[in-house]
Amino acid sequence: MAILEHYPKTTVKYKFINRNKDFKISFIAYKKLLQTILDLEGIQLLEDEYHYLRDACPYLSNEYLDYLKSFRFNPRSQIKTRFSPSSQIDSKDNDKFVNIDSLQKNYDGDTLGGLDIEISGKWAEVILYEVPLLALISEIYYVYVDKDWEKDMDLQRTLIRNKTERLLENSCSFSEFGTRRRRSFLVQDAVVEELAKIRKTASQNAQPKANSFSESNKDGVQKMGSILGTSNVYLAKKYGIPPSGTVGHEWTMGTAAIEKTFISGNKLALYKWIATFKTNLGIALTDTFGIKSFFNNFDYFLANTFVGIRHDSGDPIALVDLSLSHYKKLGIDPSKKIIVFSDSLSADKAIQLQQICTSKGIGSAFGIGTNLTNDFVKSSNTSSVSPPLNIVIKLIECDGFGCVKLSDDPGKHTGPISDIQRAIHELRNIL
Asked: Which of 401, 393, 409 is nearest to 290 (CA)?
């Protein structure tokens, strides 16, 4: 919606990035992935879903809801892929990218190789591929490639209940963020169903619970834990819990590239966000160009208007201290603000961070993803973890200009090398 308002004609390019260099996919899994991506052509917003969004997400304009109603995926013209057999992964002789409805070559089904995906087109259209594509890749991988994992869903439901009860007992408010790297749709469906049951039981208590990150610290530091919702809007509708999430890095990355400034990229993105959503969706993402760059841009108006900030890389405790210092320097009471943590969280880590924030006098909430929807053990050895994939899809180009993310974890920098170096040079006196 913000893109349609501010950058409706912008064309972009995305790239699939596998952070685990040992990741390989079989050719039969690759072919299945191509077919499921083509199946996206049949997706459309149904009438009851249209009305649900209007009621559950009042910050979405009627114009945008009408846009979603008419929207259709067009993967044949917007997605290109490449399968590189293991023997060719590092070779200059790799096959070229091909359209999603093509195969560059046929290999034996069990042949393992690397997966490359490029997505290009109008930003407002192709932005919607990231979440379903990552979810499909993850699910297909665990059906066709890594089959050694414990599939007992009763155990998963018990695990989710135990984690949730611990979080709530320790005053943690959290939302489920696990769509992109879930083990499967059925796993996430079970997770959200259990969360909805627990939330319903908790709602019978006299003390009201928050329904969003923006509400979770409205009256000072949160005293009770609560289930804020799920970022999967379909499952939110199905199980009657709030859709809940925050802005992604690509909004700041794209704004900075289009406006040709890394120094003011955060500020421009945040001001444009407010122009679109006013005081709604008020969690600012901190780590697109490093935390110091963010606070350099986070002026009094922004710090006062946004209800809080989100941590997604780097030292979380350092961020707590920096935010406290920044709010106090601006004369803003930090006890009225909130930090949303979303970086590789477990229940234990969330509880620890909640206790730190409470002791320091600032609110906290948590977006927990992979640990809720992809926490499995091997079926062959239940004392060993069946690791989740570490995959992302990142914006790499806007209107021909390279997009960059300078994570507070250096290993997570993304973008063309030359553009990363240019960003670091431009921000050299801030980073």
From this structure: 409
Span 380-420, pLDDT tens digits: 999 999 999 999 999 999 999 999 999 888 677 888 889 99
**Averaged pLDDT of the chain:** 93
Mapped onto helix, strand or coil, the DSSP state of residue 234 is: helix
pLDDT in tens, 53-105: 999 999 999 999 999 999 999 999 999 999 999 876 665 556 689 998 888 78
Whether the predicted model's global pTM rises above the 0.70 cut: yes
Helix (H, G, I), strand (E, B) or coil at 71: coil
Task: Tell me how far CA of residue 139 lies from CA of 25, 236, 344, 400, 425, in angstroms.
Answer: 12, 20, 19, 33, 40
Q: By the 8 A CB rule, do 127 and 3 touch?
A: yes
Instruction: Say which residue the tokens 């926490």 belong to.
Output: 375
What lies within 8 Å, CB to CB, of 99 at 6+ separation is 76, 77, 79, 80
DSSP characters for 184-239? -HHHHHHHHHHHHHHHHHHTTSSS----STTTTTTTSS--S-EEEEES-HHHHHHH
Separation of alpha carbons 390 and 18, rounded Å: 6
Quote the Cα angle for 85-86-87, to 5°.
Answer: 90
Domains of the chain: 2-147 (3.20.140.10)
What is the C-alpha to C-alpha distance for residues 230 and 234, in angstroms, rounded to an integer? 9
Classify residue 219 by its DSSP letter. T
**Reduced to 3 states, what is the DSSP secondary structure of residue 338?**
strand
Q: What whole-number distance in Å separates Cα of residue 397 and Cα of residue 388?
A: 28
Q: Which residues contact 186 (CB under 8 A, 6 or more apart)?
A: 153
Nearest CA-CA partner of 314 in 284, 279, 289, 280 = 289
Task: Say which residue the tokens 């319903």 belong to.
Answer: 200
Q: Is 6 left (phi over 0), alpha (psi -120 to 50) or beta?
A: alpha
Q: Are 177 and 312 in contact (CB under 8 A)?
A: no
pLDDT in tens, 149-206: 999 999 999 999 999 999 999 999 999 999 999 999 999 999 999 999 999 998 776 4
Place of tokens 């005293």: 223
Using CA atoms, how far apart are residues 122 and 10, in angstroms rounded to an integer? Answer: 6
Q: Which helix (H) or strand (E) holds 173?
A: strand 173-176
Q: What is the rounded distance in angstroms from the CA atom of residue 372 to the CA atom of residue 364?
A: 19
